[in-house]
Design goal:
By secondary structure, this protein is an alpha+beta fold. It folds into three domains: about 40 residues; about 200 residues, no CATH class; about 100 residues, no CATH class. The strands form seven sheets. The protein has an eight-stranded mixed beta sheet.
Length: about 400
């Protein structure tokens, strides 16, 4: 019989224990890394195409900071066509915060920019839809029907997006002044352009709305492909929402767009402006989509090249640089009253800030002429109630 002492046992057990301890520590370290990676993935930030979307705690919840390296322009511009809405916005001093259904690109801020490659936790549904359904069984049935293989949480995401769109609006501006495409695309050469000092406009809107209701100014993230963001990667919807309102195709890059996101209650949903949507509009408070600014911040107003045409105005040329105009009051001039109101306001409040979008030749190094768009200072004088004398100054900018 062989004597087996406690010391002999320890000599066997201790090396085995050390091995198990090392394995345990390695596994724990891996789990910690996975947990840390998951926590970083679940709600902290999202990087895409050189932009970082970072969740920021605020007093009443969360917001998103959009981090980028694009210099903010000193001046910012808004292009308008002629309509009762654009003239009203100028006269009252506000920018309209559009619903995504009102944007000119149906892919812009689309619900389809948010998706999920796995089913969301039921807690999302309880938090957002718990008061909508009478019983938890009904909500659970909706949850199961909304999560089929390869098509996860589509209805939940749509309801979330539509709710958010009823309390948020988008204000689009550009950092480019004499843009070759903005004039024809947004004014049909007949509208007008406003110029603002960027910092002063931001400050004014925040002062009038409140910091918690104004986000931006952000540049658009122009990308080759419009990749949807995965909702299931985030504990909160803040980053997916801001990402969805911030990405556009590079084909729109000529706009050099900068945006405010405005948040107010009861902004409404214009369902009738969405293709193949039979639902009636969900009406909100009209003024909720107005972002008011101090009217004296308008630094320039530039009229389009075709602002004054013989269809809408009686035009009398005095000499090579002066002419008299009067809006024609006829059923064919749909914007008659808008022309009257706009010219009256320009004369009374913006006469020293008036410009005209024209054209002229420049010459390259070889003496070959080429055509460019210009901005020329214009003088305005009121002749009678609705008649104005306009004088071109040959002062180009």
């Amino acid at each position: 019989m062989v004597d087996f002492t406690l010391l002999d046992a320890l000599k066997i057990i201790i090396p085995i224990a050390i091995v198990f301890l090392i394995v345990y520590l390695v596994l724990q370290r891996r789990r910690s890394k996975k947990k840390l990676k998951k926590n970083n993935r679940m709600n902290q930030e999202y990087k895409y195409n050189g932009f970082t979307y970072k969740e920021i705690p605020v007093k009443d919840g969360l917001t998103c900071e959009i981090i980028h390296d694009i210099p903010k322009p000193e001046s910012i511009y808004k292009f308008y066509s002629i309509s009762k809405f654009s003239v009203d916005a100028l006269l009252k001093g506000y920018l309209y915060a559009s619903h995504p259904y009102e944007l000119n690109d149906s892919l812009d801020s689309s619900v389809f920019l948010i998706g999920s490659r796995r089913r969301l936790d039921f807690a999302y549904y309880q938090k957002f839809l718990g008061e909508v359904y009478k019983t938890e069984e009904e909500l659970l049935e909706f949850y199961e029907n909304d999560n089929v293989e390869g098509y996860y949480s589509h209805n939940y995401i749509f309801l979330f997006w539509e709710y958010m769109s009823s309390i948020f609006g988008i204000i689009s501006l550009t950092g480019v002044d004499k843009n070759e495409l903005m004039w024809p695309h947004y004014t049909q050469e007949k509208g007008f352009q406003l110029k603002f000092d960027t910092e002063k406009l931001e400050s004014s809107i925040r002062k009038n709305i409140g910091t918690d209701g104004c986000y931006g100014l952000f540049p658009i993230n122009y990308t080759d492909k419009l990749n949807p963001i995965d909702f299931s990667d985030f504990k909160n919807p803040t980053i997916p929402f801001f990402y969805g309102t911030n990405v556009k195709s590079k084909k729109w890059g000529y706009e050099n767009e900068w945006r405010f996101i405005i948040s107010k209650q009861q902004m409404g949903i214009p369902c009738s402006k969405s293709g193949l949507d039979p639902r009636p509009d969900i009406n909100g408070i009209k003024e909720s989509r107005h972002a008011v600014y101090d009217k004296e911040l308008v630094e320039e107003i530039t009229l389009g090249h075709d602002f004054f045409t013989g269809r809408e105005f009686a035009i009398d040329r005095i000499d090579g640089k002066s002419f008299i105009v009067e809006p024609i009051d006829s059923k064919n001039n749909w914007n008659y009253q808008e022309y009257v109101d706009l010219l009256d306001y320009i004369h009374s409040d913006l006469s020293d800030k008036l410009f005209y979008s024209g054209r002229k030749y420049e010459f390259d190094n070889d003496g070959v002429p080429y055509l460019i768009r210009t901005k020329e200072r214009l003088e305005i004088e009121k002749i009678d109630e609705k008649k104005y004398k306009l004088t071109r100054t040959n002062e180009f900018y």
